[in-house]
Amino acid sequence: GLRNLLRDEFFNLSLAETQHTMTVMAPIADKKYMKVKVDLASGKTVKLKYVNSKVYIGREGTELILNDIEISRKHAYIQRLDNNQVIIYDLASANGTFVNDKRIERKVLMKDDVIRVGNTKITFLGVFQ
């Protein structure tokens, strides 16, 4: 399915370009989306758009799948509220979720906040329409 296709594309590190944009679509009416930039441990950077209001981050079975042994299977999730406020929640992960180098359980995200899960950096770029 789309998730496996995305995972295969996401981890195909032989791609020549250093930046790659993928859009994950879901049936949703308001067309708002969250945008993040992911800096992989390999040095590769990808930009992702999510129209889902909730995006789970982890090693498997999540919308954002990261091949990083320091990350729990279901590590954290980001939720966009109706007022466009975005909150990240740690899911009691073993190694923690950090925003701007501070360990968090729950935190409102602001544009350009840097999330770290395992060895992966995720920059929150904001909500767009």
Report on the structure:
With 129 residues, the protein is mainly beta. It has one domain (2-128): Tumour Suppressor Smad4. Helices cover 7% and strands 46% of the residues. The strands form two sheets. It has a seven-stranded mixed beta sheet with strand order 1-3-2-12-11-8-9, with helices on one face. Strands 5-4-6-7-10 form a five-stranded mixed beta sheet, with no helix packed on it.
Task: Fill in the keyword field for this structure.
mainly beta; 129 residues; Tumour Suppressor Smad4; 1 helix; 7-stranded mixed sheet
Q: What is the global morphology? A: globular
- Might you state the CATH topology name? Tumour Suppressor Smad4
Number of domains: 1
The structure class reads mainly beta
Q: What is the CATH top level name?
A: Mainly Beta
Helix amount: under 10%
Please provide the ordered H/E string of secondary-structure elements: HEEEEEEEEEEEE
Overall mean confidence score, pLDDT: 84
Strand order, biggest sheet? 1-3-2-12-11-8-9
Low-pLDDT windows of residues: 11-19
Tell me the fraction of residues in β-strands, as a range.
Answer: over 45%
- Rounded Rg: 14 Å
Main sheet specs: 7 strands, mixed
Cα distance, first to last residue?
26 Å
CATH architecture: Sandwich
Tally of helical runs: 1
User: Quick one: how many beta strands?
Assistant: 12
